[in-house]
Structure formats: structure tokens, C-alpha cells
Specification:
2 helices; mainly alpha
Length: about 110
């Protein structure tokens, strides 16, 4: 049984390292994205101040398009949706009395 436990524990440690690396990568990516966004905004302000509106709009459009792309990627990724339909709900018991047999209820 020791070989099975070692395999399970080693696999768990490997998965933990992969998750930690993914979290670190996401954190670094967010900081880089923030830096690029701030640099583009600063460049846009400088170009607008110098009177070069075309360059200002180009640098201002970069962070706006990036944010819009991230939003659309989340909307259309479908990651929050389940790939299989939910299980059917159980039938709801009724409180109506059972129908009387042999009698006509219209009289």
C-alpha cells in the first residue's frame, strides 16, 4: 500500500505546485497589464497636451480595447456554464384530494 500512497501524495504535490505557479503567473500578468495601461494613459495625456490628437487617441484606445477584449473573453468563454444540463427536479406532491370514483362532480 505504500507505493499507492506515495503515488497519490506525489501527484497531489505536483498539482499543488502547478496551481501555485499558475497563481503566480496570473499575479505577474496583472501587474504587467497595469504597467502597460498606465504607460498608455500617460502617453495619451502627453500627446493630447502636445496637440497630437491622433497619437493620443491611439494610446487611449489601447487600454480600452484591452479591457473590452477581456470582458468579451469572459462573456463568451462559457466557463461558468455547465456542459451538461442540470438533473431534473423531483416531482412536487399535490395537495388536491384524489378524485372520487363513480360520482359525477357536475351535479
Amino acid at each position: 500500500m505504500a507505493w499507492n500512497d506515495a503515488t497519490t501524495v506525489d501527484e497531489s504535490r505536483r498539482q499543488d505546485k502547478l496551481v501555485d505557479a499558475e497563481i503566480d503567473q496570473a499575479r505577474v500578468g496583472r501587474w504587467i497589464a497595469l504597467g502597460v495601461t498606465l504607460a498608455c494613459l500617460a502617453a495619451a495625456i502627453i500627446f493630447f497636451g502636445l496637440g497630437n490628437n491622433v497619437a493620443g487617441i491611439a494610446f487611449l484606445a489601447t487600454p480600452v480595447l484591452a479591457a473590452g477584449g477581456q470582458f468579451l473573453a469572459q462573456v463568451f468563454s462559457g466557463s461558468s456554464r455547465s456542459s451538461s444540463p442540470p438533473p431534473p427536479s423531483p416531482p412536487v406532491p399535490t395537495t388536491d384530494p384524489p378524485p372520487e370514483s363513480g360520482r359525477n362532480s357536475s351535479s
